[in-house]
Amino acid sequence: MRYIQTVLGTIKPEELGVTDYHDHLITIGGGEEKADRDLRLDRVDYAIEAMRSFKQHKGDALVDMNPIDCGRQIEMLKEIAQASGVHIIACTGFQRSIYYDPEHWVNKYPVEEVARLIAEEVEVGVEINNYNGPIVTRSTAKAGVIKCATHYNMIKPMERKTIEAACMASIRTGAPISTHTERGTMGLETIELVKKFGVDPCRVTLGHVDRNPDLEYHKKMAAQGVTLGYDGPSRAKYWPDSVIIELIKGMCDAGYADHIMLGGDNGRASMWKEYYGAYGHNYILDVFVPRMRESGISEENIEKILVKNPARQFSIEK
Length: 318
Ligand SMILES: [Zn+2]
Hints:
Layout (H helix, E strand, L loop, with lengths): L1 E5 L2 E3 L7 E5 L7 H5 L8 H13 L4 E4 L9 H11 L2 E7 L17 H13 L21 E5 L7 H17 L3 E4 L6 H10 L7 E4 L7 H9 L3 E4 L10 H13 L6 E3 L20 H12 L4 H15 L2 E2 L1
Parallel strand pairs: 3-4, 4-5, 5-6, 6-7, 7-8, 8-9, 9-10
Antiparallel strand pairs: 1-2, 1-11
Bound molecules: zinc ion.
């Protein structure tokens, strides 16, 4: 059985539609927001406005990649999905170790218990308070994807532990994995780790890898079955869009169009039109996809990148 688990229930993979593979709608509290206040996204009304606009611009689905204790607000995601009609997938799992105190329970509990807490968010419901209180209160919304993360040019011990926990939970639940890489590094090392922990790389998406837009490196990763998440469009501080276009063309020419997804990763208030930024959640569909077309990327490959690959990659397989 294959299905997609959104915050409002399950749908068929073919119902998912045009998907933003990695984005953010609400961030209130958590380690990332403490580290950088621009990462606070506290307006449900703005998120509803952004998602209604995304829907008008032919967007159908978005994956909110805030995991446990990174400002995730599951009840607000439900409200945004209900009000906008966009399919929203919530995630469980963990961000990089720098966002969790050394005393955080993730660093104390055995890996099997961490895996169980992740799996229960997929199978039973997301914990409303991010497992921060003595009372566990679960939302009716279940997580549809498991996050793990790696540091820049290194995988820290907590990250290795949570990759193992993510793999154990993925095997138990059938849920896919989507990672955070820092500047696109540690992709091949993450593939080796998930294989070691018994997960087929086909079930894994490596996020932000376009921050390291080295075509040969991307071909090597894709050849092992992973899907690569590109979310750098509009972020000239990393690379201009032209670099990402060339990377996508190179990957398509090499026969890897089945291994790419696109996302906005609008984790900063300064990225949203609704707060005070210039672009926001429509940039990919309004600006970047037309440029892909102008650059000669085929409609068939665009359809794969926006629709077919996400439908496969976010399926829960049992
Ligand atoms: Zn993100």
